[in-house]
């Protein structure tokens, strides 16, 4: 019988040394999808070695792309894409599969793929993606959990006005618009840095795009997009996770390879709590808060505190004296880690979208389960500073978004190791 891998750690770790941030998962996913638009060989650097990326690349290969590594670069050749349908067996493995909607529809005038489905953090509707594509002339239907979109005479440029800013929805419309002759306007667009990184690639391919990083974006597309070569931006959530680790146990923890300007609000919050942070260029040095104070946190879209940092911040607040609160404004059901943190001795109560955290002197190590990627990261942080041993199950969810998390923490002094069979992270070295 296969023993599923777990992470184990002994508690009360001090983190000292330098930890490096990898390339961004959530920037890599749409950029991989965007390569479908140009029928060329594209070269990507700094693509992280993660399960989500492996699965995205497998879908690309199913569509007909050639994906292979050469000298640490990922080459993606998309001239021979012949398939415009994605089977449920592939699409359901990764929510990012929704990012194929815009590029495949733009390339073929037809796409069929399964609804990516709900997940542990909420229902995650895609109505805004569909609304946007309809505004570009698509005929979209949703039947039995399958999305079918047609634009038999081709999509046309237009005006898309989102009711809520959506990151992958904005990416889908940007990608479609970049390959259409003419001008498309996107209003109430997502402003996240991952959108800016995608736009940088679309500009390299030959589209003219203004306004990325703001809520109004203008895209002048072209039907003859060129090949692109790009270095993926640093992962701002991985960087933020290490900053929280530093605030918990850094003496000091030095973080390199991140982008400081993506962390402005998080840095302010950690300083308000009592952590000491020094910044030099893109090097961030975090000393743990010796006299931490309770704080109030609300998640928001960029440049606010990301929902993807909410669980990790909750671990940090669990042992801060006094009463802290966290309000989750992005996803309606993103508090599954509360149960696990409470099993470790935390005192957290959830009232709708608000969690009230009564600081306890220490967390106690035990066996816990990762319910989603960021919840898993929060449990790693909890295990690192708890008293006694912690074992985390279902760690494949952590491998979706953190590259070699146990090696990186072990290198800065943590007692953490992986046990059991199963792949460690997941990017096979794709061969030509
Ligand atoms: N929403 C709608 N309708 C839509 C789309 C979104 O109502 O058609 C709502 C959502 O329910 C949510 C809000 O809009 O309340 C924002 O959702 P968004 O669409 O921006 O999320 P996403 O694009 O599906 C990306 C990241 C998530 C991250 C969110 C928020 C990727 C692949 N995923 O998801 O990352 O939490 O943006 O920043 O980029 C993670 O990495 O752990 C992760 C979950």
SSE blueprint:
Blueprint: E1 6-10, E2 15-20, H1 25-34, E3 41-45, H2 51-63, E4 66-70, E5 73-77, H3 88-91, H4 101-108, E6 110-114, H5 127-135, E7 139-143, E8 146-150, E9 159-161, H6 167-178, E10 182-187, H7 193-205, E11 208-210, E12 216-221, E13 229-231, H8 236-249, E14 250-256, H9 264-273, E15 276-280, E16 283-287, E17 296-298, H10 310-318, E18 323-327, H11 336-343, E19 347-351, E20 354-358, E21 367-369, H12 373-385, E22 389-393, H13 396-399, H14 405-411, E23 416-419
Parallel strand pairs: 2-14, 3-13, 9-10, 17-18, 21-22
Antiparallel strand pairs: 1-22, 1-23, 3-5, 4-5, 6-8, 7-8, 10-12, 11-12, 14-16, 15-16, 18-20, 19-20
Helix pairs in contact: 1-2, 1-7, 4-6, 5-6, 6-7, 8-12, 10-12, 11-12
Bound molecules: uridine-diphosphate-2(N-acetylglucosaminyl) butyric acid.
Family: Belongs to the EPSP synthase family. MurA subfamily.
Protein name: UDP-N-acetylglucosamine 1-carboxyvinyltransferase
Subcellular location: Cytoplasm
